Amino acid sequence: MLACTTKASAKLLAITHRFGHEAIEMKSPYAITSADGGGSILQRFGTPPHFTGTPTGLTYHKFGVVSSQSPWTGGNHNLFYSASPASTATKGQETLTTFVNNVADEATSSSFVFEFALKLTEPSQPQLRAPPVGANYSRVNKPAGD
Questions:
Q1: Which of 11, 39, 47, 58 is 20 to 30 A off residue 31, Cα-Cα?
Q2: Taking Cα atoms as reference points, which of 142, 131, 140 lies closest to residue 62?
């Protein structure tokens, strides 16, 4: 879990849930009342599983990543906020970085770091929804054996 304030003074709470395979950014329910949207999801990033109800019915959503991104299959944890990252992939935008223990179909490495640009989107409906995909992001593989 990470509490941070963006350059635009937005008070955020960002969470990961280890085998939920995603990071979720919301208006901080600790700093913003529910009447003012505290707890509203502003961005999701990752590949959370979706159960279809059949014996082999596990599929994955793709939030903020390209559709060809293999699902995250290991634990997803730790978040770090950067107001001015050096990454060229995020084009100087504010970012969050998360650690992923494993990605399916990746034989060359067992750990990854994903840095993604904040692309906060206000919910247009009172119910939860998935904000649009397409955040700029970069992925770094941790070499095997390190």
A1: 47
A2: 131
> Which residues of the chain fall below pLDDT 70?
88, 106-109, 124-139, 141-146
What's residue 45's pLDDT? 92
Taking Cα atoms as reference points, which of 49, 2, 41 lies closest to residue 21?
A: 49
State the pTM of this model: 0.80
What is the distance between the alpha carbons of residues 12 and 26, in angstroms, rounded to a whole number? Answer: 6
Rounded Cα distance, 96 and 120, in Å: 12
Pick from 7, 13, 8, 44: which is nearest to 26 by CA?
13
pLDDT in tens, 13-32: 999 988 889 999 999 999 99
Quote the radius of gyration of the chain (alpha carbons, Å): 15
- Give the bridge partners for 46, in sequence order: 22, 63
Query: Residue 121 sits in which domain range?
Result: 2-143
- Domains: count for the chain: 1
Spatial CB neighbours of 111, under 8 Å, sequence gap ≥ 6: 74, 99, 100, 101, 102, 141, 142
Q: How many CB atoms sit inside 10 A of residue 27's CB?
A: 23
